[in-house]
Amino acid sequence: QPQLVESGGGLVQAGGSLRLSCAASGRIFSVMGWYRQAPGKQRDMVATITRGGSTNYADSVKGRFTISRDNAKNTVYLQINSLRPEDTGIYYCNARDWPYNVWGQGTQVTVSS
Q1: pLDDT at site 86
Q2: In this structure, how many other beta carbons lie within 10 angstroms of the beta carbon of residue 41?
Q3: Where residue 105 falls among pLDDT bands split at 50, 70, 90?
Q4: pLDDT of residue 34
Q5: What is the mean pLDDT of the chain?
Q6: Under 8 Å CB-to-CB from 15, ≥6 apart: which residues?
Q7: Which run of H or E residues covers position 111?
Q8: pLDDT of residue 26
Q9: Could you read off the pLDDT of 71-95 as tens digits, one per residue?
Q10: CA angle, residues 32, 21, 14, in degrees to nearest 5
Q11: H or E segment to which residue 79 belongs
Q12: Spacing of C-alpha 92 from chain mean position
């Protein structure tokens, strides 16, 4: 069964940076991405990347977040810069390749002002 293992979350001051990693096993996925769930809110897309490297970002993170992918390692990364308190939430890795739609366990990112 395909699995995703995330790492890299933590507590950081506003303006700081973090790098999240998500290692996939069991399958090569056509699309991988990151989603964020803030306290009391729904889970929203942050960024996605195809196997060929095409990216898509939520408007709120454009210019601050960068998604990348190492196909050889079957790993997707999210570089987060200029963090804001509103970036606080649980960040979930997602990987899709029909018929699979797999979620990681989530990693907490907390930004203090």
Answers
A1: 94
A2: 9
A3: very high
A4: 98
A5: 96
A6: 82, 83
A7: strand 107-112
A8: 87
A9: 999 999 999 999 999 999 999 999 9
A10: 110
A11: strand 75-80
A12: 6
With CA atoms as reference, report the closest residue to 91 among 15, 29, 19, 16: 19
Label each residue of 2-70 as H, E or C. Answer: CEEEEECCEEEECCCCEEEEEEEECCCCCEEEEEEECCCCCEEEEEEEECCCCEEECHHHCCCEEEEEE
pLDDT at residue 23 tops 90 = yes
Q: What is the biggest distance separating any 2 CA atoms in the chain, rounded to whole angstroms? A: 42
Q: What angle is formed at CA 94 by the lines to CA 68 and CA 73, rounded to 5 degrees?
A: 45
Pair of tokens at residue 83: 């963090």
Burial of 23 (0-12, 13-18, 19+ CB in 10 A): middle
Distance CA(90)–CA(2), nearest Å, equals 21
Stretch 11-40: mean pLDDT: 96
Model pLDDT, residue 17? 97
d(Cα 48, Cα 97) in Å, to the nearest integer? Answer: 13
At 8, give phi and psi (nearest 5°).
110, -5
